[in-house]
Amino acid sequence: MVLAVLLFFAGLFLLYYGAEYLITGSSRLALSYGVRPLVIGMTIVAFATSMPEMMVSLFAAVRGSSDIAAGNIIGSNVANIGLILGVAALIAPLSVPAGTLKREVPYMIGASVLLYLLSIDGRLSFGNGLVLFLFLLVFLVYCLRNAREMGLEKEAPPEVVARESQARAKDVVFIIVGIVGLGVGAELMVRSALTIGRALGISELVLGMSVVALGTSLPELAASLMSAWKGEMDISIGNVIGSNIFNILFVLGVCPMVRPLTVDPSVLGFQYPVMLLLSVALIPLAYKRLVLDRPRGAVLLGGYLLFILLLFR
Fold first, then answer.
1. CATH code at 2-311
2. Among 279, 297, 252, which Cα is nearest to 60's?
3. Most CB within 10 Å of its CB: which of 12, 110, 126, 179?
4. pTM, full prediction
């Protein structure tokens, strides 16, 4: 049991730094080839920040632990909104861009509803995963076109491209180290989580939605809290919304195409509705003043803590 706990935290450590190395290396490598910063942020960085969830869910799916694979994503999305935005708003009020409420939040809600409809038969098949992944591609194309129309898609400065092109070998090493760290960390987390769950009599589903989900959300938690601390409030909101969309459409799009996932019936009656409720709640909480202040942050955090409490009831 003690060894399993140590391995869990070792896996958590590798997941966190693996994601950091992968994000840094891939972003700099893309920039060295002149890829626009906006494209890097919306594709490479977005994919990389979802890699902890992807690797854990993928390893769990291959092992036949569908409850951890699906529970990790649902729990992570609940944590992103309830815990991360809640705590960030308590640190400093978060401004919410009107465009985010009109575009990204509805897309996140739509992705959540789509996931529910595809899972209603208790299974996510290859075809279901393909549908989710295709909606991800539609979302990326839409965002890039919208950014181009608004004049946000600026070229990378030539001096930055020249500087980064001299460090491509280093960036490749960063990417390789990051991928290896994510792979090893995910395997350690899944194995140790299964051991801890059996020892404590906790189901894989509850474990995946609580401890494992919180662990895979650490990159988003760290990024959002630092953004809030520095006063860059819009980054916190965008980071969370984008992460939730990618978790559903990317992770639960790819994993069923590798191995179909079963969905526990209890998830459809409690965990899915909570994820959807928190997603929808962002609109009335932020619509009037376009801000998530401390009282509203307390509501989100309270909702997350209640969710965890009910999970272990």
1. 1.20.1420.30
2. 252
3. 12
4. 0.83
